[in-house]
Amino acid sequence: MEYSYSYRFMLVCSVLVLCFNTRGARCQLSDDFYDYICPDVYTVVQQHVYAAMRTEMRMGASLLRLHFHDCFVNGCDGSILLDGDDGEKFALPNKNSVRGFEVIDAIKEDLENICPEVVSCADIVALAAGYGVLFSGGPYYDVLLGRRDGLVANQSGADNGLPSPFEPIKSIIQKFNDVGLDTTDVVVLSGGHTIGRARCTLFSNRLSTTSSSADPTLDATMAANLQSLCAGGDGNETTVLDITSAYVFDNRYYQNLLNQKGLLSSDQGLFSSDDGIANTKELVETYSANAHKFFWDFGRSMVKMGNISPLTGDDGQIRKNCRVVN
Ligand code: HEM
Ligand SMILES: *[C@@H]1O[C@H](CO)[C@@H](O)[C@H](O)[C@H]1NC(C)=O
Ligand SMILES: *[C@@H]1O[C@H](CO)[C@@H](O)[C@H](O)[C@H]1NC(C)=O
After folding, report:
1. Is 292 annotated as a binding residue?
2. Is 6 annotated as a binding residue?
3. Could you report the per-residue pLDDT of 202-257, keeping only the tens digit for each?
4. Which of 76, 196, 289, 321 is the most buried (most CB within 10 A)?
């Protein structure tokens, strides 16, 4: 009864911009969620992200990826931040790979001092990703807020739901579709690889010294350089995802793909694979030629990704410490 009433109420409300559930809690993300209850949230997150990127420019990229990996598993609910052996942190796509937890912790600590138990960890991650993009030279987009934090981590969900650089574009598109994102979102959000780094173990399958055959869609000079980086190492050596402008958020990532200089096979495949030619190649060409359109669409797709199954209203909680449930 209670449920169906509240459901009908939500349907009616969703026509309006604001939405409240039966107990008066908001049930939809908005760009003014903290305006009265914690207006300093923007300044605090911004200052921490700025300082972290001054120390290490890559942190902007790491925070962007953290948000992506949070959203794809049980929605954007901060579940990736939870500690524990069965946490998402230790899922294959995240282990020894996702970064930025200390930055989130520091932001949370400050926010607990000014507005205790008001700002969710999931929102902190979403905002930090937005500033990571902005301070890398990327687009400003209005980050929608009002998420609440999840109560469980889902390690198998992370193992199964996060895309791998080794799978065909078609199955990457399927994983995006599974969370409500489309083929355009795949191409636009892959543009996140205009910043940040990746480990040899994630692309050495494309090199002839470490695999039986070299990838013909990888530029020969680039392949030679990658080979000397990775040869004899343990797979942990890293290189930049965007060889032409490593830490600058721009559309050169797409221009690289036109020149067979995508790092991961899931990058180059957007342009060069049969799946890519059928589904994504044209979009790569569009974004390689139009930075403005890429920026605009990236912001739009980030908002869409940030809207994956958020917990709102009375669901979930506001964690006091992002690493553990209250
Ligand atoms: C389309 C499917 C995707 C695949 C297969 C993929 C795969 C990867 C891999 C393998 C790495 C390197 C990880 C490591 O070295 O440990 C990486 C890094 C990264 N990814 Fe993706 N990714 C995808 C989509 C995205 C999306 C949607 C975003 C964000 C919008 C994103 C943002 C990043 C960033 C910023 C980095 C660098 C992180 C850092 O330097 O700390 N990726 N990705
Ligand atoms: C974990 O994620 C999967 C989707 O990959 C979902 O079916 C399952 O219900 C989730 N489990 C929990 C405990 O949230
Ligand atoms: C890479 O680094 C991690 C953590 O520093 C370590 O546990 C692992 O053994 C290293 N080597 C490989 C091949 O992953």
Report:
1. no
2. no
3. 999 999 866 667 999 999 999 999 999 999 899 999 999 999 999 999 999 999 99
4. 76
